[in-house]
Amino acid sequence: MLIGDVQEWVDNFVSFDDRFLERIAAVWSACMAVLPEQPGEDDITINLVDRLAKDVVVRRLCHWVEYQFEPFGLAADGSKYSKGIIDIAVLFDWERDRYLAYECKRLNVTNGGNRSSLATVYVTQGMMRFLTEQYAEQLPVGCMLGYVLDGDVPFARSRIADAINSHIPLALVEGPVPLAAIDKIERFRTRHTRPTGSLIELRHALLSKQSRPLRG
């Protein structure tokens, strides 16, 4: 639950996302170096979160980085229940309802010489969870991380854009709008209207398996 000016929270989330992605870029190569050529989504995310949780800069930026965070829903009888599992959630304090969610999806997966973009899965099993408020309930910002396994980010970005524009339930208001890259991480944002009428901004980051860490 957010208290105060919603736009101020949007600005805070956006600012944090920029800094958090800088740290992801810093640990990305080391994370991927210990994984096989076609790693699973969970394997990538586990190793990424492990490194981020140990990063001295990240520790100054937030309270905790959680792998497979379970947000709680409120039932009619007043009891709480699990709404699902978010791949990565950043907590800023002890308030469980106030977090920045990162849903992670593999892209451009190759199998037997064939490539699958998995852009449709990115939309229907990733972005849509923010629209239905399964994730980030009553929160104005959510984030997507795309693990581009073959390094072909332009192909992944093009297929995602096609999938976004063709999926009417996304209720697209704006985008995809390009954002400035952070190191080798290409980014864009989209804005959507939820069924409840509230707006949510989704921030997208595409990480190539070939990315190199920041210098300095």
- Spans with pLDDT under 50 lasting ≥5 residues? 211-216
Give the helix/strand class.
Answer: alpha+beta
Largest sheet: 7 strands, mixed
Sheet with most strands: strand arrangement? 1-4-5-8-11-10-9
Tally of separate helices: 5
Through-space gap between termini: 38 Å
What gross morphology would you assign?
A: globular
> Rounded to an integer, what's the Rg over CA atoms?
17 Å
Percent of residues in β-strands: 25-35%
Features:
216 residues, alpha+beta, 7-stranded mixed β-sheet, two-stranded antiparallel sheet, 5 helices, 11 strands, 35% helix, globular, disordered C terminus
Short characterization:
The protein has 216 residues and is of the alpha+beta class.
